[in-house]
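Notes to self, FMNH2-dependent monooxygenase:
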Amino acid sequence: MAPSIVSDGNSVTITINHSPNGTANGSLSGKALPNPVSDPAVYGVHHKKFISEGQPTSEEGWVQRAREVSEILAIDAAARDIENKSPRAEVSLLKSAGLLKVLGPKSIGGGGQSWEVGYKVIREVAKGDGSLGMLLGYHLLWSTTANVVGNDEQMERVQKLIIENNYFVGGAVNPRDNDLKITDAGDHLVFDGFKNFNTGGVVSDLTVLEGVFAGTENHIFAFVLTEQPGIQFAHNWNNVGLRLTESGSVKIDKVKVPWSDALGWDTETRAPDPKVLSIPFGTLLLPTIQLVFSNFYLGIALGSLNFASRYTNTSTRAWPYGSDNKSSPTEEFYILERYGNFFAHLRAAETLADRAGLEIAKVYEKHGEKRGVSERERGEAAEWVASAKVVTTDTSLRVTAGVFEVTGSRATGRKVGLDRFWRDVRTHSLHDPVAYKNRELGEYVLLDRVPEPTWYT
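result:
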């Protein structure tokens, strides 16, 4: 279970529920055990502050709250990246800050904000810690799942479950793996199979499962409690970047799900409800999450420039053999030129990402209730997202690698932590080849063809 945070207005109580052996590494039995777990109590003063202040009430307030969280995370992000502790403490910070609720309906305690604001919040958090920006982004996407593919009753029930309990949501939805097998067992379904990757599951309260109903080609999404015997994490995420996302593999072993929790399915006909799972509205989750990617790439790159700037001002030495020697690196032409160029491209990428976020938000605002959206409307929004994906990927990789040119050789020290920004972008930007986004945009420009919905479009 994730830590619970309770306040009576005067004090804050943090309860940490560890699984057995939850702080151990290695095993004599040969079974993989969890990484050491970070302790939510380390953020106690921040929990108390955020809870006493309450949730923000405006777009500016939510972005500012995300900025505050980002600054807290940035303080020891490099050290935490090295320690590779399971980020229960950091998720607890997202919880007490209210960021998990930013998109939820105000009527049940959510922030009532649009995806346009949600993307900016993700970006801010990623500036301080790319892993937590990614976890927040995926959580917000999974929290939207029932709104897109569920019926009205499911949408309301899932939103209440998440918002009222301040749950963090992970997902075992990896399209490139064989889908989980789903079988009918009378009044419930059984999910069974294996995923090479999940996102944030180890530190989640709820997990989104997705698979194919046996004998059909129809997919089913469902929310389940994470802590149960049938969800077995391998604890094998030890990759070069995004090290604190707990994105390793997971076995789904005969997990039971009531038919009433099969999102968008008719429990009597045992078939998708055509009034709910309408295409193309039901496929909006795909461009929505692609823009989540762009925003945490962008946040990471902006974070790298901020980090490098501070380092240049405090630790970089001027080059003494350039014929036009300066006393300070901040006077050197090539350093000023590089920073200016990086900043200009990031500013342009940020503007594009904001425009794409507006387009996605407009589609939800216009069609969220009646679930009607034309293929053209969806496709044109998806092409704004594709444009942002191309530009943010290219720019973020270039900037996070290029900042070493303006910081110097000592900036490559492991404890400095400048390398984590490039490692984070490089790791996730391999999620799906950006070359296909370029091709997709080419078809849009040359042939006026909007993309056919796929798991990556």
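- Residues 1-30 have pLDDT under 50 and may be disordered.
- The longest strand covers residues 250-258.
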